[in-house]
Amino acid sequence: MIHSGIHFFMRESLRRDVFVCLLLVFAAAGGCSRKNDSAPQAGPVEVTVMKAETAPITLYEDYAAQTEAVEAVEIRSRVGGILERQAFKDGSLVKKGDLLFVIDQEPYLSALTQAKANLAQAQAAHVNSSQILKRSRPLSEARAISQQELETAAARERADAAAIEAGKAQVQQAQLNLGYTTIRAPRSGLISRALVKPGGLVNASTTLLTTLYSVDPMYVSFTVGEQRLESLLQQYRSGSDKQAALPIRIRLADGRDYEHGGKLDFVDAAVDPRNGTLPVRLVVPNPDGTLRAGQFVRAILPRPANPNAIMIPQKAVQELQGKHSVFIVGPDNKAVYRDIETSTRSGNNWVVEQGIKPGELVVVEGLAKLKPGVPVKPVMAKDTADGNGKTAPAAGNAGASEPTSTTAGNTAGKPAGDTR
């Protein structure tokens, strides 16, 4: 009993001690909370802002494209035989009429000689039959020979005359075949490698010897979405003057702009129902042979000019799950969260389609400190200095710029800052 009483007393003492400690902890927390509540609030957050302004701008869309020769001629032989000689260097430029290949001519020389001999024989036979017919006519009038003999002589003369015409045709065909043994360039252009080397067998009309590509001009082919087609046609429907004002540029694989612009040459008659696109083709001058058939390039097309474009720096825009937003300085100098619509970048700037009105102050720097409703102290971007002591310009409004991101999945995805 004594031990039980001692244990009970100890448990009660421990409970009282724990209860007292908890009361002290809560009291201290409440004091801290009251102390913090009584602390003075921080001042407004200083942020760098820019004034949204409108300015005309021409944006560009670029599409994956491929060059194509205006004429690609497959070189084949009209006669068969052993290839005797290749008269060009693989991959060289050739002119119309230049000798390309020579087929073994001996069989065709023999055939020509045989055809000429057959013609001479037919001509001799015709001379003989003509003389017989000439003698037979007066004899038939004198009734020295029958009418049937006269008709036989006349038929023989006509047959020999026809044999002469057949002989001439054989000679002509043999001459053509002999001429076909020398294969010449049908036009000027860039020739590919020879697919048959000297000593190889060439089958008439079936063996592909090489391919000749025209050089100047060159086609550039790509596809556009059907929603872009009408505006594209409207831009170039008025003729060459408007094409000169809004040229289509070609960008090479190494990032350089091709020195010659292209003109719209062909738009396909039907839209592909599988992806809603249709083929478009440009014609581009290529006097120096810079472009080669099959090259991958970018076709850069201007979009209709926007006379009231609003551009803001890319760093002022927050992106989350495909949505874009900015902070605006409200009339009471408090941060206002604003969703915007934009799909096109121009260098380091976004082109805003909806969500910002001209004259509003857009926060450019200090976004990490902002929440909706937070008081701010706006400082114009043109009034701030960079690390070198120079004035940092506000986001400009270029007269012509090129996007780094456009619609239709055909954009190049150029690095930010490229406004060439």
Automatic annotation (TrEMBL):
Predominant location: other
Gene3D superfamilies named in the record: 2.40.30.170, 2.40.420.20, 2.40.50.100, Helix hairpin bin
Domain Multidrug resistance protein MdtA-like beta-barrel per the UniProt entry, residue ranges: 217-300
One record GO biological process: response to antibiotic
GO cellular component, one term: plasma membrane
Annotated localization: Cell envelope
Gene Ontology molecular function terms on file: transmembrane transporter activity
UniProt cross-references to Pfam families, sorted A to Z: Beta-barrel_RND, BSH_RND, HH_MFP_RND, RND-MFP_C
Domain Multidrug resistance protein MdtA-like barrel-sandwich hybrid: 72-207
Residue ranges, annotated region (Disordered): 381-420
UniProt domain Multidrug resistance protein MdtA-like C-terminal permuted SH3: residue ranges: 308-368
Domain Multidrug resistance protein MdtA-like alpha-helical hairpin: 112-181
Classification via InterPro entries: MdtA-like_b-barrel, MdtA-like_BSH, MdtA-like_C, MdtA-like_HH, RND_pump_MFP
Domain of life: Bacteria
Family as reported in the entry's similarity comment: Belongs to the membrane fusion protein (MFP) (TC 8.A.1) family.
The protein's name in its UniProt record: Membrane fusion protein (Multidrug efflux system)
Organism annotation: Paucimonas lemoignei
Highest classification ranks of the organism: Bacteria, Pseudomonadati, Pseudomonadota, Betaproteobacteria, Burkholderiales
